[in-house]
Specification:
By secondary structure, this protein is α/β, with parallel strands linked by helices. The chain has two domains: 151 residues, GTP1/OBG domain (Spo0b-associated Gtp-binding Protein, Chain: A); 166 residues, P-loop containing nucleotide triphosphate hydrolases (Rossmann fold, 3-Layer(aba) Sandwich), CATH 3.40.50.300. It is 18% helix and 23% strand.
Length: 329
């Protein structure tokens, strides 16, 4: 399944039905008078959050959506049927913006949450509305009004409490595969992960916490280099970040700084998000060399640095214990 996290769609709410001009012609009612009914209201367009959807792939192939029109009025003051509302399902975590002004219209984050995005047109009036003492047989009626039209920009931001970040090949996919039942593609070359991977990690209470493996950032990601710019938005909803650094890198401090600088450049408070720092792949280093690199990164970031190995599961229990403590579990 393709991971599509942005889409642009056009919406057309239903047009209101026309009113009609009609007169009662019944036996024993010599002066029946006007009896034209009103037109039905046009259908509204709603967006609804569906937890069973993971991407905006459906909108890659269909981008124009229109609700039903209202029916015209009938004789004997019968109102036409209203158009059925159109409900469009989107993944939980979808932001809805006006594509022209970029104004945020809504943020669908909870199951079955709805957002009214286009209002149907009002039905026209039948000639029964225009009866007066001066005009006992009006033939005037009005047409229904057009429904609203909108061009919307949809952006999906994954709903994950914990985001795993780091340079390519830091071991993020391996870590999420060990902690959860996620099975991402893993290989020994940069940019193996091309889309975010989600995994559910069980808390001590038995509940699940969603972890997200965010594709590798590189220098310049906030300006569009590599894959980071496309997926940095998915970190915005996380409560906690796990910053993985490849302990076997030639310059672990530089690797750490690159990612921190990109978070700061992207903005939205990402550089101020609570973050745990962990050196991964520690099984590849001698103990003295490992301690030196841990101390180097710890002195720079001003907090303790964990040494873990996703491949051998070393110290992963300690990592999760710190995660649960930060989340208040």
């Amino acid at each position: 399944m393709q991971f599509i996290d942005q889409a642009r769609i056009s919406l057309q709410a239903g047009r209101g039905g026309d009113g009609i001009a009609a007169f009662r012609r019944e036996k024993y009612v010599p002066a029946g008078g006007p009896s034209g009914g009103d037109g039905g209201r046009g259908g509204d367009v709603w967006l609804e959050a569906d937890p069973n959807l993971q991407t905006l792939l459906d909108f890659k192939y269909k981008r124009l959506f229109a609700a039903d029109d209202g029916r015209r009025g009938g004789p004997n003051k019968a109102t036409g049927a209203s158009g059925s509302p159109l409900v469009i399902k989107v993944p939980c975590g979808t932001e809805v913006r006006d594509a022209r002004t970029h104004i945020l219209l809504g943020d669908l984050t909870e199951k079955d949450q709805r957002l009214l995005v286009a209002v149907g047109g009002r039905g026209g009036l039948g000639n029964a509305h225009y009866l007066s003492n001066r005009n006992r047989a009006p033939e005037k009626f009005t047409e229904g009004r057009d429904g609203e039209e909108w061009l919307l920009q949809l952006e999906l931001k994954l709903l994950a409490e914990v985001g795993i970040i780091g340079l390519p090949n830091a071991g993020k996919s391996t870590l999420i595969s060990v902690l959860s039942s996620a099975r991402p593609k893993i290989a020994d070359y940069p940019f193996t992960t091309l889309v975010p991977n989600l995994g559910v990690v069980r808390r001590p209470s038995g509940d699940g916490t969603v972890f997200a493996d965010i594709p590798g950032l590189i220098a310049g990601a906030a300006q569009g280099a590599g894959l980071g710019h496309d997926f940095l938005r998915h970190i915005q909803r996380t409560r906690l970040l796990i910053h993985l650094v490849d302990a076997s890198s030639e310059n672990v401090l530089h690797d750490f700084q690159v990612v921190q600088q990109e978070l700061a450049a992207y903005g939205n408070g990402l550089d101020e998000r609570p973050c745990l720092v962990a050196l991964n792949k520690t099984e590849l280093l001698l103990e003295d060399e490992l301690e030196e690199r841990i101390q180097q990164v710890s002195d720079h970031c001003g907090q303790p640095v964990l040494d873990i190995s996703a491949a051998t599961s070393k110290n992963l229990d300690q990592l999760l214990a710190k995660v649960w403590k930060e989340l208040g579990v």
